[in-house]
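Hello support,

Our group uses your service weekly, and this is the first time we've seen a run hang past the timeout. The protein is DNA repair protein RecO. I'm not sure whether the cause is the sequence or the server load. Input pasted verbatim:
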Amino acid sequence: MSLFRDDGIVLRTQKLGEADRIITLLTRGHGRVRAVARGVRRTKSKFGARLEPFSHVDVQFYARGSELVGRGLPLCTQSETIAAYGGGIVTDYARYTAGTAMLETAERFTDHEGEPAVQQYLLLVGGLRTLARGEHAPHLVLDAFLLRSLAVNGYAPSFDSCARCGMPGPNRFFSVASGGVICGECRVPGSVVPSSEAIGLLSALLTGDWDTADACEARHAREGSGLVTAYLHWHLERGLRSLRYVEQ
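Update from on-call engineer: The timeout came from a worker crash unrelated to the input. Re-ran successfully.
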């Protein structure tokens, strides 16, 4: 029987019995963790209010074995709020739908419980913080998060050099299956010809050039979002349910 302490983002919750919940978190040190929080659905429980989606919390776990993630679910015995990002997200539809898609993406990219995913964790913390503060348009924050999540998981798209032969850009064709922009010689069936502005926007979002991203026109942002969604779905092999509700 062991105690563990970690900080994490609450990804989702599920009802368990009459008063309990199963809490899914993405933690700094242990990756994705599911734990039981007892009594948190009672109206007088202050503990439960801290364990809602979008919350950044410091959590103590109680596990029966020597490992946090084992044959049974650990218990979440204490939690302290580090940042309640939900307050700046759930009251705005665009932020809420973008944030929900970010939580689902983080969960999908951390398939194996108990395996540290520090870069994904830090991306999620930074993305939710930016979203809650309203510093940039929610759909731009979401697309930046999706592109960077793909990158840290080994699927970074190319927006300049040809993804197949390496020919320096700009290259005018884009192929999801090929890994980004491709030249005319490497063009494959199913390639599209996006606008240079949309490609420039996605490159800016991937590299953190927010001056360029914030100045983009809405039509180019919609075009870029379509490319990001197609690229993400290709690598996840099935779509994100939450993306259908995101406002473009």
